[in-house]
Amino acid sequence: xxxxxxxxxxxxxxxxxxxxxxxxxxxxxxxxxxxxxxxxxxxxxxxxxxxxxxxxxxxxxxxxxxxxxxxxxxxxxxxxxxxxxxxxxxxxxxxxxxxxxxxxxxxxxxxxxxxxxxxxxxxxxxxxxxxxxxxxxxxxxxxxxxxxxxxxxxxxxxxxxxxxxxxxxxxxxxxxxxxxxxxxxxxxxxxxxxxxxxxxxxxxxxxxxxxxxxxxxx
Length: 218
Hints:
This protein is mostly helical. It has two domains: 2-83, Homeodomain-like (Arc Repressor Mutant, subunit A); 94-212, Tetracycline Repressor, domain 2 (Orthogonal Bundle), CATH 1.10.357. The chain is built from 13 helices and no strands. Helix 2 (32-54) packs across helix 5 (82-93). It is globular. The relative contact order is 0.10. Residues 1-31 have low confidence and may be disordered. This is HTH tetR-type domain-containing protein.
């Protein structure tokens, strides 16, 4: 299965350069898009697991391709680079942009608070925090994280805000969310785990409301 898939990718995808080989597959067969999508998905899943286990600098493109049972050249074709693959894994694992855009703007502080509380009380932090925790020291990853945070968090927040200094307010709210990572790595989450979830949600709602408000609460 894996060998046949690699042969299809090499021989009959026109974007590799040059015309397709008419003898590469039987006429009328229409499974190439599905094959490409399946391979792409395997690469993303393999990268997610390996980055989470070894960190960005501990993983090579060849390791990812081998784990996905795919041709190493496909990593560069589909994602451009290892950093591009890391960025796409982040994109697929993050639900923040959808959370921000869904629902009424008036309830946004509460939704953000509930998101943070869910993250605090999650038994398994999931692949995204593990990837970031084990990769954040890499300069390449820092650049990817900066762009990712801008695209999925700051920009969607700015789009929901009215009034002056929208970007500064969005950045402040983003800091409340992204600060969970350093807190988890350095201090741990024990004290927050022990807090009552309803009270923690209320406190965080007040913090997000203050951060996003066009006026300083009196």
